[in-house]
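Repro:
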Amino acid sequence: MTAKRNLKLQPNKNQKAKQSSSWLVGTVLGVSLLLTVGNIQTALKSFNNQQLVSLQSDIFPSSEYQPIQLGSTDKIAQQDFSEIDRIAKELNYSGTSIEELANILAQNADTEIEKARIIYAWVTQHITYDVAAFLDAVNNDNYPDVNPQKVLRDRTTICSGYSNLYFALAEAMNLESVIVAGYAKGATPEQEKFQDINHAWNAVKIDDAWYLLDATWGAGSVRDEKFIANYKPYYFATAPNEFINNHFPTDRGWQLLAEAYTRAEFDNLPSISSHFYNLGLELVSHNNYQIAAQNRVDVKLKAPQNIVALANLKQGTQELSESVTLVNRQDDNLVISIAPPVAGIYDLTIYAKENDDPGQYGEVINYQIEAANSTAKLPKIYGHFNQHQVSLIEPLTANLKPNWSTYFNLVVPQAIDVQVVNTDTKKWTPLNGYGNYFAGNVEIKSGKTVVIAKFPGDDRYWQLVEYQSK
């Protein structure tokens, strides 16, 4: 795919712009990593009194490069960079020379793609995010020096330092690259959005085609005002149609898209993390960040069979109970049902992981829901509901009518037996099994009603769903 723009780096022409603007980039950037991954309240408090300064000029205007040939990110994704990444990680260069480090890296990389990758892998795995410098900048207007030589010497910086160092190493290794300034989405409420610039990243030319990368986001994350190193290959040669979910350059030519997004269109994209794509998820419904809801909302994601998910609904800073979200597996899709308890504005965050992954769920996508009406609560679900990929067809309300026959219908893969139990009367009512489908009418009594299931190789029954009846 070819856009109607090109880049041909002219070092002499842009050198002055690069030198004069890089410090200014440092004065307004470096905040995105912190806001994207955690410690939101500290950051918001800092931003209440901060004035973000607009850049006086673009560092590398896309209009000077005609036309831009777009690279095949699918082709890049098929390459095995494990050895390059390992070499970069183990290359503990202790010097301070850009040229010397570039020469060492070049000895381990023959092609342009290997050079571009080893720079990314080295910078992201050897430079830490300077949380203290960020906080000092936003609280005291004391901005750090993001000169690439200083970044290499100190081994710590904010986002503009990452992009400056990547550019300097690429230039030393005879790769064409640019620094891109713009706005990157963070986990902040809509009313706390930044102005136009809060982040910097790069584009690099490989075999006459251009690719996007973000070394800051590739380096790790910040939680509780501490940097946590976590190398993320995803942010190297990221597909432009995915990169745009979180990165909006001031120069729209650097979107590397055939049809550029406007800022309004960008703002209304859901906030999607790299974890979303790493797990193989796809949007089926709700392509916009803002969702208008009259009653219950069902967000649908296409997901591999081994993926499980959870959802969290917040109103302001208040996290709501389990009875407002429910995740069902329906064939190749995950359906996330949301039941706002009252009219208002809500933040919906969906988390996912591989079912056999013992680690924590990772955030994959975030929406804002504007509810016009309240909705009946959803039933409470338990861990084995997600673990066994259960789908609850009905009933989908938390409160059941006592002394009333209620029809239960669930899909419980691999279950041997499924029962509906009133925990007060201790009465068990079996549901009829039809393969993985279990259904039947149950006479509901006052108190707590639970659905339990027994699975192969386990004599115990596990609670799946809980209802109340009063």
